[in-house]
Design a protein that fits this description.
Layout: H1 11-25, H2 32-46, H3 50-69
């Protein structure tokens, strides 16, 4: 079951990702960016490459700290 999930995304990242996925898959009416995020999350879950996972974990930690200091992350 899919449920609504909200998170912060910089406008520049959203625009760049949308343009890139549209250039690869064509322009869709809506939901294309959400589909990309779901696919990327599933690929993350399915990977067994520890080097890649460590690299991703490092980037996640860096992003988490950055957004905490920029006050973008909800405290709820």
């Amino acid at each position: 079951m899919k449920r609504l999930f909200n998170f912060y995304l910089d406008d520049e990242v959203k625009e760049s990702a949308t343009k890139r996925i549209e250039s690869l898959c064509g322009i869709q009416e809506k939901g294309q960016l959400a589909s990309l995020i779901r696919v990327l999350l599933n690929e993350f879950l399915e990977t067994n490459d520890n080097v890649r996972l460590i690299s991703i974990a490092s980037k996640v930690t860096e992003e988490y700290c950055l957004t905490t200091h920029c006050n973008k992350r909800s405290k709820l």
